[in-house]
Amino acid sequence: MRGLVIKNTGSWYTVRTDDGRTIESKIKGNFRLKGIRSTNPVAVGDYVHLIINQEGTAFISEIEDRKNYIIRKSPNLSKQSHIIAANLDQAFLVVTVNYPETSTTFIDRFLASAEAYRVPVVLVFNKYDLLDNDERRYQDAAIRLYESIGYKCITLQATDEAPAERSIEQLKPLLKDKVTLLSGNSGVGKSTIINGLLPDAHLRTAEISDSHNTGMHTTTFSEMLQLPYGGYIIDTPGIKGFGTFDIDKEELTSYFREIFKFSEACRFNNCTHTHEPGCAVLKALEEHYIAESRYNSYLSMLEDKDENKYREAF
Ligand SMILES: Nc1nc2c(ncn2[C@@H]2O[C@H](COP(=O)(O)OP(=O)(O)OP(=O)(O)O)[C@@H](O)[C@H]2O)c(=O)[nH]1
Ligand SMILES: [Mg+2]
Ligand SMILES: [Zn+2]
Fold first, then answer.
1. Rg (CA), the chain
2. Dist. CA 101 → ligand 1 center (Å)
3. DSSP-based helix, strand, coil % in the chain, nearest 5
4. How many Å apart are CA 295 and CA 258, to the nearest integer?
């Protein structure tokens, strides 16, 4: 029996079978995925084959090849990875300028990883209602920057009655018939957005901590929900850092779209854009064609490669 993994809680996977049943499943013994050292060999969004047993539960006997996936380094086991979700059409990265503050480094690391795995990203700037004028100006500047690079940006207010230009209604046409991952730091409003889209979902949400201005990690497992107009949306636990996995140093430049564009004019084709003479990226940075924040994020990922370590701070 074939099915789609819609939820993962510890060692149990909830699978929606092709004939419409929902079956709690486990992985069979020494099941391993070739090439990936992952803390979760099966992820939400995977298509699997089940052997159903008499108790009405099942063993996962096979995983179908993935179209793509979003993966990150496990916080504690730096040599291991964690697959956030598989077979995505797109990811919405929910960010907040404040309450909590999402760092540009976090945004850029997520974007670069999604480029590496060919998952298109939409940036969703949430909690507009909480921002003061300076923060709104900052957000406008950030949106100009990311739109100039080619990323779609949306301004949102997930709670209460939002005016049309920032209501969650904007998301519906983008979600229709697609599999969309919702990711971002804890407390940015991922579950609130899904509750707004699917009032029957009743996902747990919680206020962020006053003293730390950070989320409370309210969502603890990934869950895929079906949209009435076609498609799926995946709620995920908030992530603190985004340690990248398996990205070649040589290829890193190509995951920063605008940096890549300038790099084609560098004197050396193995230029790392850090110190080399004739580096077109450094020149563009100096002339403000490349934003400092983006270049710093590029450097942070380049350093990761040297040290091969997970960066909690982002
Ligand atoms: N004022 C305001 N509050 C919001 C908005 N969106 C979400 N919130 C609030 O922010 C808090 C956190 O929202 P959640 O939906 O739990 O955040 P989350 O991203 O799912 O967090 P984790 O599950 O911990 O990753 C809740 O108190 C929400 O009511 C918004 O647009 N404006
Ligand atoms: Mg949540
Ligand atoms: Zn260069």
1. 20
2. 13
3. 30, 25, 50
4. 10
Over the stretch 98-130, which tens digit does the pLDDT of each residue have?
999 999 999 999 999 999 989 999 999 999 999
Residues lining ligand 1, Cβ inside 6 A: 126-127, 129-130, 157-159, 184, 186-192, 205-208, 215-219, 237-238
Looking at the structure, do residues 134 and 220 belong to the same domain, yes or no?
A: yes
**Which CATH number does the domain housing residue 259 bear?**
1.10.40.50
> What pLDDT is attached to residue 80?
74
Q: Is residue 242 part of a domain?
A: no
pTM of the predicted model as reported, rounded to 2 decimal places: 0.93
Does 308 have pLDDT greater than 50?
no
Q: What is the pLDDT of residues 167-176, one digit of tens each?
A: 999 999 999 9
263 is a domain residue: yes
Same domain membership, residue 166 and residue 145: yes
pLDDT attached to residue 73: 76
What pLDDT is stored for residue 296 in this prediction? 97
CATH number of the domain enclosing 165: 3.40.50.300
167 C-alpha to center of ligand 1: Å?
Answer: 15
pLDDT of residue 313: 41
**225 shares its domain with 96:** yes
Taking each helix axis from N to C end, the angle separating 292-307 and 133-149, rounded to the nearest 10 degrees, works out to 70
Domain of residue 153, residue span: 70-235
Tokens 């490669």 sit on residue:
305
The pocket of ion ligand 3, defined by CB under 5 A, consists of 266, 271, 273, 279, 281
What letter does residue 66 receive in the DSSP assignment? P
Same domain? For 149 and 228 the reply is yes
CA of 307 to the centre of ligand 3 (A): 21
